[in-house]
Write a structure and sequence with these properties.
The protein is α+β, with helices and mostly antiparallel strands and about 130 residues long. The protein is built from two helices and eight strands, in the order αββββαββββ.
Length: about 130
Amino acid sequence: MTSESLAASATMCFACGVDNPIGLRIRFQMRDGKCTGVFTPDENHVGYKNTVHGGIIYSALDDVMANVLYLQDMKAHTAKCEIRYRKPLEVGQTINLTGWIAQERRRLVVLKGEARTAADDILIADCEASFMLA
């Protein structure tokens, strides 16, 4: 199965699906062994007042890490993820997402991810996750 056919089968993905009417619609790309994407939350992503819900930030980070594998034609699922929120993210603040492989062990791949503000590169959240290859 090629990356194009994998992408075609994920059009309803909450984070990156182009056909999901309530999704985040983040476009991911691989460059120099890292997966990157850009996301700007809106008023639908609020947790409290003008602050973006942590689950939205987690979803974006989980998907940037998953796409490190996915865009290389490897199917996998999240087995475990630990996230640390560093700063609140406000509605309308664009973040740059980055994911990369930290370690590989047979069917288990450890990935890391970061969300940083596009305007000033401030770390909003970072995480480490274990993914099981399918």
